[in-house]
Amino acid sequence: MQKNGGIELNQWNEKLSAPAASLAERQAVGRIALEHKHTYRILTEGGELLGRVSGKFAFEALATSDYPAVGDWVIADVLEAEGKAVIQRVLPRTSSFSRKAAGFTSDEQLIAANADYVFVVSSLNRDFNVRRIERYLVAVADSGAEPVIVLTKADACLNPEHYMEQLKSLGDLPVFVVSALDGTGIEELLALLGPGKTGVFTGSSGVGKSTLVNRLIGDARMDTGGIRESDERGKHTTTHRELILLPNGGAIIDTPGMRELQLAETEDLDASFPDIERLSESCRFRDCRHQAEAGCAARQAVAEGELEEGRLRNYMKMQRELAHVEQRAKQQEKLQEKRMEKRTRKRRKGERYD
User: Fold this and answer.
1) Is residue 37 domain-resident?
2) Under 8 Å CB-to-CB from 14, ≥6 apart: which residues?
């Protein structure tokens, strides 16, 4: 039984059994359901707690991705009388779905952890953009989670096959056509999210993520509205990432809509563009940029109608973007080394005066 926002550990990852068996007194294993300015809502077997990381944790964290994220499993000291907790460590992640943080940094922003599936959501209307879906799939490829495409608002679409046809260039991926209004495809989605399974819903604003989430959980927990007839977009959108437990024992993580998903340094284009990678092996020059070089197999494939021009352009755009992110990452790595050296000198200086 789940109680007061609690979670049954035996329904989840078998790897939790060892940490749970070796807890110190007044410690608990919990899962991060919500994060706001380094305050966390944690689901434990004993119920729901509010928590923050310990001072030691904060001191040893080198990057924002070291901090707990929604979906993370953590070990925390429980302050039962106050209904609070102090997070001591994050358990190893089985998957991590991230993007590049906003601004001029190369840091990764962890969107969700320990997901089995990342549902890339798009709507069956004018908002549909296969190139945007392609970008999301690149971000999912190295996450450790399985990508799934979800096409919403099927009730308002007369020809979903038109959109399905455009997805064929993305490879053999599971695609669900759903409607939160009439229930089309809902049971099939729920079948993926059985006991111990977690799915992250991501996509642009207004594609119907939160309305779909509400249908899956059976209530109106997320703040949503109808569709504006003028542009077929939702009136309200999710403003935070939140893990929600499903009645069947699974969990879903809803995320805010993104204007554009910025790629992180760790992304690898090979997994998402295997067709272009194969063509690259046949190019005359090993460092072919697929622009105007002689003997470019990718350009030849475009000319012969075997490869979409838009797909190749998108690949090249993301290739340039990742090269830029990698350059910034190297600069930040040097700064991080300097910080570590400074921290080590301070620690040694303190030890001399003890």
Assistant:
1) yes
2) none
